[in-house]
Amino acid sequence: MATAMELWELEKFLEKAIEECRKVINLSHRGLTIVTGRLAGAVCARNLLLNHNKLLVPPEEMCSLTNLTELILDNNMLTMIPSGIGQLSKLRVLSASHNPLVALPEDVANLSSLQCLWLSNCQLSSVPSSLGHLKSLQKLGLRSNELCRIPDELCNLPNLRWLSMDDNLIKDLPAGIGGWVELIYLSLNSNRFDEVPLALQNLPSLVSLHMRRNNINSLPDDTIVALSFLSYLDVRENGILKRPEEWKGLDFIVIGSEIDEES
Question: What proportion of the chain, given as a percentage, has pLDDT over 70?
Fold first, then answer.
C-alpha cells in the first residue's frame, strides 16, 4: 500500500505544477485528508483528479479554478460539494461517486457546459430540481442511491443520451419524460416498478432499456407493440420466467435467466 503524501510533499507538488502551468493536476490515490490553499494558484489546470483519497471536505480553492473542464472526486469521504462549484462554467465532467454526500448544492445547476455528471453511491434521497437547467448534459449516473422519484424538471434535459438510475427506490416515471428526445440508453434495474411504463413510447431515440430486478410480472400486448422500436429490452429477474409462444420473433425482449451478454 502506498504511503500517504505528506503536506510538505503536497506543497512541493503544487508549487511545481503552478510553476510549470500544468493542465493536469493528478492527486489521486495519495491518502490525502486535506488539500492546502496553494491549489488556488493552479489557474492553468484543466483536469483536477482528487479521487481515491480520504478527503472529508473538498478544497474550496478548486472553485476558483475556472479553466477546469474535468473534476474527479470519487471514492473519498466527502459529505458535501462546495456551493461555489457553480463558478466552473467550463466544466464538462464532474464525478463525485462513492461519497456520502446526502445532498447536492443548488448551484450545481450553474454548470452550463457540463456534459457528464456521475453521482453513484452517494446516499442521495433527492436531487435538486434545478438540475433541469443543465441543458448540455449528455450522461447522468445516479445508481445506488435512495431516490424515490425523478423530479419532473429533469425531463428538461434535451441533450441527455445516457441515464442510469439502477438500485434506487423508484416506482414510476415523471409525466414529462418525452423531453428526453435524445435519450438512447436508460437503465432502471433494481427499482420498484411493477410494470414497464407505457410512457416510454414517447422517447423517440431510445434503443436500450434495462429493467432487471423490479416487480414486473407481465408485459401486456399493448406495451410490447408500443415499445417494438427498441433494440433491447431487459426484464430478467422479474416475474416473467417463460417466453410466451406469441413472442416468437421478438428477440429484443430478454426475460427469465437468459445469459447476460453485458456482464
Answer: 97
- Please, is 84 exposed, middle or buried when counting C-beta atoms within 10 Å of its C-beta (0-12, 13-18, 19+)? middle
Sequence-distant (≥ 6) Cβ neighbours of residue 95 within 8 angstroms: 51, 71, 72, 73, 74, 116, 117, 118
Cell (9 digits) for 209 = 432499456
The full DSSP string for 107-124 is GGGG-TT--EEE--SS--
CA dihedral sign of residues 157, 230, 221, 195: negative
Written as one letter, the residue type at 26 is N
Contacts of 23 (CB under 8 A, 6+ apart): 44, 45, 46, 47
Looking up cell 462513492 gives 98
The reported pTM is 0.93
The set of cell numbers assigned to 105 is 448544492
Q: What DSSP string describes 182-226? A: T--EEE--SS--SS--GGGGG-TT--EEE--SS------HHHHHH
Element (H, E) at 17: helix 7-19
Q: What is the pLDDT of residues 204-224, one digit of tens each?
A: 999 999 999 999 999 999 999
CA distances from 164 to 60, 143, 258 (A): 29, 6, 22
Which stretches of 95-185 are DSSP H helices?
A: none
CA 199 to chain centre: 22
- Residues in CB range of 91: below 8 A, 6 or more apart: 68, 69, 70, 71, 111, 113, 114
Backbone angles phi, psi at 109, to 5 degrees: -65, -10
The residues pairing with 232 across neighbouring beta strands, listed in sequence order, are 208
133 close to 111: Cβ distance less than 8 angstroms: no
